[in-house]
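Support request from a user on the community tier.

User writes: "When I paste my structure tokens into the form, the page sometimes reloads and wipes my input. The last time it worked, I copied everything first. Here is what I submitted, just in case something in the input itself triggers the reload:"
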């Protein structure tokens, strides 16, 4: 059961917007790790240009999780302060569901994922 926050407390969990080049299965992995996450296919069009994704993430306080080099470049080229971009650098970032999460402590994620996202 989730604990109740006192009135005026702010939820400081990181909100992640998973880019179209990553599988929607990432949402479950991230939720199990305690992150709020949405796949871009939910609020946006699958063929939306990258600046639209970045604008949506900025307005809605998301950090973009991507496998795409372009989003970080867009942020740097525009001297933007947000949204932040976390880029997964792996040959296969599709997440096929084969990650064994049974050994994760409840509500926690592996340290290497935490380090990448915090």
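"...and here is what came back when it finally went through:"
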């Amino acid at each position: 059961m989730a604990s109740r926050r006192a009135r005026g407390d702010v939820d400081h969990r990181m909100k992640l917007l998973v880019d179209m080049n990553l599988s929607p299965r990432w949402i479950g992995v991230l939720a199990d790790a305690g992150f709020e996450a949405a796949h871009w296919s939910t609020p946006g069009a699958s063929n939306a240009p990258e600046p639209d994704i970045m604008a949506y993430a900025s307005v809605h306080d998301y950090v973009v999780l991507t496998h795409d080099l372009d989003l970080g470049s867009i942020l740097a080229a525009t001297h933007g302060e947000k949204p932040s971009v976390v880029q997964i650098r792996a040959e296969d970032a599709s997440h096929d569901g084969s990650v064994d999460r049974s050994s994760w402590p409840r509500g926690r994620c592996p340290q290497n994922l935490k380090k990448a996202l915090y």
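Agent notes: The reload is a front-end session timeout and is unrelated to the input. The helical segments are 26-32, 50-59, 69-77, 111-117. The longest strand covers residues 15-18. Escalated to web team.
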